[in-house]
Amino acid sequence: MRARIEDVARVAGVSAKTVSRVLNNELHVSEKTRQHILEVVQSLGYRPHPSARSLATNRSFLVALLYDNPSPSYMMEVQSGVLEACDARRYSVLMQPVDAHDPGFVAQVETLISGRHLEGLILTSPVSDHAGLLARLRAWEIPFASISPRDRDGVGVALDERKAACEMVIHLSSLGHQRIAHIAGHPDHGASTWRLDGYRDGLGQCGLRYDAALVVQGCFTFDSGVAAARELLALASPPSAIFAANDDMAAGVIWASSEAGLSVPRDLSVCGFDDTPMSRQIWPSLSTIRQPCRDMGRIAADQLLCLIREGVGSMIWQDFSLCLRGSTARVPDQALRAGSSTP
């Protein structure tokens, strides 16, 4: 027979209410008692019924991840982290794609919250920067946590993307590259601004002149990376390195380079941002900036659940690192000499 919560309470020598507090990660239970109950739960193979749990507590134990992001590699990593954190606390997650540009967007989210009885939201850019939605969530007092929002004073997780981009440009310069191009991300994303600013910071620190012709607008998709690379490689004086604002666009650059008969990294160095699994699966493997996307999803979910349970949450800062692989290399001596005479 299936074990009941009363069976756990009887074997553990505590009340059913205390068992319920432990299973729902509530406070006011000693660590010794908590561990003892969890051991009994495991030994009896007790599994609470989700519907009974919701009815008993008058809660849904359901949160939603809202996203309007064209990069499947990035979102898959974020989703994995969110699911990991929520599963550990026995919350369910609704993965909800949205269109933040739809005039009825805020009303649609309101319907989602009320219809599904959501306890909170995890927001990714550009949803995390939608002023109308944020104002409504605060007015409703709906808990939410954001991943890489423009406003770093809220609850969620962030990374110094401007500094990371700057360091990548400095690295490319150290390899002898003087014409370094940048493919910017979607203009609605805060990350695009920070990464473009970091690109300009890096040029300045290396004594290289900013050239608007070397910056092309992308939108975080593979196809936009292909189109931008074609435009850059068609310049009279093309770049020797292209820094794309995410890995998907960088993969598009490598594809367009091959189309043009160029070899990466012999003829062109290419790098991206995020360190998604795809960056290690293409050839040559992609030099990129590691943004711990899965960890950031997990941390955002952790902070949201803290906000729901305890009424407090924080903005957690994550570290980045340069992952230098096969797609970047030193400029050949002859190219370096030719670049030194380019104004």
Residue windows where pLDDT falls under 50 for at least 5 positions: none
Return the string of H and E elements: HHHHEHEHEHEEHEHEHEHEEHEEH
- The count of β-strands is 12
Let me know the average pLDDT: 91
Task: Provide the descriptors you would attach to this structure in a database record.
Rossmann fold, 434 Repressor (Amino-terminal Domain)
Describe this structure in words.
By secondary structure, this protein is α/β, with parallel strands linked by helices. It has 3 domains: 5-57, 434 Repressor (Amino-terminal Domain) (Orthogonal Bundle); 62-159 and 293-319, Response regulator (Rossmann fold, 3-Layer(aba) Sandwich); 161-291 and 324-340, Response regulator (Rossmann fold), CATH 3.40.50. The protein contains 13 helices and 12 strands. It has helices at residues 5-12, 16-23, 31-44, 50-57, 72-88, 105-116, 131-140, 161-174, 190-205, 222-233, 247-259, 293-310, 333-340; strands at 62-67, 92-97, 120-124, 144-147, 156-159, 180-184, 215-217, 241-244, 269-271, 288-290, 315-318, 321-323. A 6-stranded parallel beta sheet has the order 2-1-3-4-5-11, covered by helices on one side. It has a 4-stranded parallel beta sheet with strand order 7-6-8-9, with helices on both faces. It starts with a helix and ends with a helix. The mean pLDDT is 91.
